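Annotated sample (chain length 245).
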Amino acid sequence: MRTIVWFIYFWGFLLVKWPKMSKGLRALEAGDWETADRLAARYVPQWANRLLKLAGVTVTVEGKENIPAGRACVFAANHRSYYDIPLMLTQLDAPHGLVAKKEIAGLPLVRGWMRLLHCVFLDREDPRKAMAALNEAIENLKKGYSISIFPEGTRNKGEEGTLQEFKGGAFRIATKAKAPVVPVAITGSRDIMENNHMWMHPAHVTIRILPPIETEGLTREEIKALPERTAEAIRQNLLPQQQGG
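Output written by the structure step:
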């Protein structure tokens, strides 16, 4: 029943708020980013927080003081669950755009709100389109919009506490924009749904926001090592007591 109610709310909220989304998209097209940003900042966390509550999710967040004040940054998080998206939208300093797979752009209503958040959609099968998306993210950072990435590229289905390889492409966004990378360690999100055969169960998630890694002035070797440096910071902050969950 919990899962059914969740899906009804997921689409019901988007339908009810469709006029607000349309207003925001019109504002965006007209260059009124202030109105678009205000609507996204109000309604996206409202929607995502309710999704977490309906699933019975509780969250402990540590390290919010590590988020650079007044500076756009790249939040780089490990990826265990579909729920990592609403978690990142609600548990940072504000909702931020995501670097998302192109398939998500095909979801009706969802894509509109993602546009208001300045998300970019990555087509890994087309290098030219992928580069265009990364360049869009770089420009957004330069305009002051932080962005969240999952450098593993896909959900890690392994044991809790493990990571897949962090792909270097996502970090070019930070280095090209000279923006800091803020590692984010998420533990327990897979227990909400994926560990229960895709049925939702109450679970507790711990999110640790780690000190930022400055990218301006890095040498070529340091830039090359940035993905593993970020991965290691996250690896050291995944909760060991939840391994094997």
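Annotation: The radius of gyration is 17 Å.
Annotation: DSSP finds eight helices and seven strands in the chain.
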